[in-house]
Specification:
Elements: H1 4-18, H2 23-31, H3 37-44, E1 51-53, E2 58-62, E3 68-73, E4 76-83, E5 86-93, H4 108-119, E6 124-130, H5 137-143, H6 155-163, E7 170-179, H7 181-187, E8 191-195, E9 200-202, H8 206-210, H9 218-222, H10 224-230, E10 235-237, H11 240-252, H12 292-299, E11 306-308, E12 316-323, E13 326-333, H13 344-359, E14 364-370, H14 377-381, H15 384-397, E15 402-411, H16 412-416, E16 426-429, E17 434-436, H17 440-447, H18 449-454, H19 458-472, H20 475-480, H21 493-507
Parallel strand pairs: 5-6, 6-7, 7-8, 7-9, 8-10, 13-14, 14-15, 15-16, 15-17
Antiparallel strand pairs: 1-4, 2-3, 4-5, 11-12, 12-13
């Protein structure tokens, strides 16, 4: 006797699960400009590589004879797949089934996905829409009780949501309205992405917020501009397909888990390549800003710079890149915003980025142009100095190799935070570099006030003092005392950076750190 009857029923249940919420709900999803969860998984994974786990989990209906008459699948689809040939876990919300809310959730499915990622040491991609299995007021009626947040049954999901940040790469895609637990799962990632026209994220959505007397749309409350500027989300794209491509590219720089090193890829870009334009990249006029991104693109391997968090903490640029095929974490001051001063947001950005580098064994390259912490009333109200010393702690707690190139400014306490203080780090300075306790501009007025007030020609005396001090401030004078190790020709920079990446690779040590990225 064969078991064909049972296999036939299994196939029937699988077909019902693949129908998701039914043709009407699928049509509504497409009308809203959004793909279904299964289409999203197909877009993320290598063709034919997705192996689903728990496809037939859900709520079944039976007739009087005990035969299957209907089936509503769980609103969570999960399993293993390959992304660019590397194994990952993908877990996604099915918004066509009760909008992804708790009363259509089998909680063990997302927990199993997180455990699978942790214990098999696989990156996890969370595709989130709705509450991510979170609550709904209607759940009270359908279950006959209220859930205690973090109570028995929910604790493991919360545990793994944060704990996996210390173990494996975690990517979150917000591809619709995301609220509550879904918002927490999207924010608790190493890299998060929203679609601009079709997604929004909030702790509680407009119906709840507007009941408190507001009148906000989804976009006004939690659209991509709100969330990327606040730093809650790292990246925003036009289409879901672009989100899939960004997720794949982010993962390409990282190891599969913290017990291995980042992958090295073949490189056709000459590690000793020289661009004559680097010699004039920094203007002689210290008040003239310049664009840092073209310089970054030229120094790293061609086409390899992948920026993260562009709209948050904008005086600092952060991203992943490659130097002779070796992945690095790259930070750079951006003088187009606050002259490169570190704001409270920029400090928060440093902390998170350095944590990412430390978690996944990425050497840090810092192209420094920082005139100090942001000053003024707003800076004091934002507790900038507290955020600044937290950034200093993150840098000093890091153990990965560090290379700093001082392009222009390095002033004040923020100037101190350009490399770990307790160990050897590689450091270079361009001839355009300038440093000190504070910039001369403005400082001369305070330090030489009596002399300036007594001068018959105040402006001439100010120019005389400034000219004298500018000569004393030459980086070559600092190099005489070996307070800066090397002043370099800017055209040497790519060669020296690729050399650093090779040296760093020799001493990188895989393994779990004392802490991973703190979201």
């Amino acid at each position: 006797m064969s078991w064909q009857a049972e296999l036939d029923e299994l196939a029937k249940r699988q077909r019902m699960a693949e129908a998701m919420g039914g043709p009407d709900k699928v049509h509504r999803q497409h009308e809203g400009g959004r793909l279904t969860v299964r289409e999203r998984i197909e877009g993320l994974a290598d063709p034919g590589s997705f192996h689903e786990v728990g496809a037939v989990a859900g709520r079944a209906d039976y007739d009087a004879g005990g035969n299957l008459s209907g089936f509503t699948p769980s609103n969570c689809v999960m399993g293993r797949a390959l992304v660019d040939g590397r194994p990952v876990v993908i877990v996604g919300d099915d918004f066509t089934v009760r909008g992804g809310s708790a009363d259509a959730t089998i909680r063990d499915k997302p927990i199993t996905a997180e455990r699978m990622a942790a214990d098999l040491r696989l990156p996890i991609i969370r595709v989130i829409e709705g509450s991510g299995g979170g609550g709904s007021v209607k759940t009270i009626e359908t279950t006959g009780r209220a859930n205690l947040p973090g109570g028995i049954g929910g604790q493991w999901l919360y545990h793994h949501t944060g704990d996996n940040l210390t173990r494996v790469p975690v990517v979150g895609l917000g591809l619709g309205s995301v609220a509550g637990l879904g918002a927490a799962r999207l924010a608790a990632t190493h890299f998060s992405i929203m679609t601009k026209a079709t997604s929004a994220m909030f702790v509680a959505g407009p119906p709840v917020v507007n009941a408190l007397g507001h009148n906000l749309s989804k976009t006004e409350l939690g659209g991509w501009e709100i969330q990327t500027k606040s730093g809650a989300i790292d990246h925003a794209v036009e289409t879901e397909e672009e989100a899939f491509a960004a997720a794949r590219r982010f993962l390409s720089y990282l190891p599969g888990h913290v017990w291995e090193l980042p992958p090295v890829t073949p490189c056709a870009d000459d590690p000793k390549r020289i661009e004559e334009g680097w010699l004039a990249a920094i203007p002689r006029n210290i008040r003239q800003p310049y664009r840092i991104r073209p310089l970054i693109e030229q120094l790293v391997d061609d086409g390899s710079f992948f920026e993260m968090g562009r709209y948050f903490g904008r005086s600092l640029v952060t991203g992943l890149a490659r130097l002779n095929g070796r992945p690095v974490a790259l930070m750079a001051g951006d003088p187009m915003f606050y002259a490169g001063s570190w704001t409270a947001d920029a400090c928060a950005k440093v902390i998170r980025f350095v944590d990412l580098a430390e978690t996944f064994h990425l050497p840090v390259v810092y192209l420094m142009d920082c005139p100090g912490f942001m000053i003024g009333l707003e800076a004091e109200q934002r507790a900038t100095i507290r955020w600044g010393v937290r950034a200093m702690a993150a840098v000093n707690q890091s153990t990965v190799p560090w290379c700093t190139v001082i392009l222009r400014n390095a002033f004040g306490v923020a100037g101190v935070v350009h490399q770990p203080a307790s160990r050897y780090s590689v450091r270079y300075a361009w001839p355009s570099a300038r440093w000190g306790s504070l910039p001369l501009e403005g400082g001369i007025e305070a330090a030489y006030r009596a002399e300036l007030d007594a001068a018959p020609d105040r402006a001439a005396r100010l120019a005389e003092i400034e000219g004298r001090l500018q000569k004393l401030r030459s980086p070559l004078r600092t190099a005489e005392a070996f307070w800066v190790e090397e002043i370099i020709d800017p055209r040497q920079t790519r060669h020296l950076l690729t050399d650093f990446a090779g040296l760093a690779r020799r001493v990188l040590e895989p393994g779990q750190r004392a802490h991973g990225l703190r979201p």
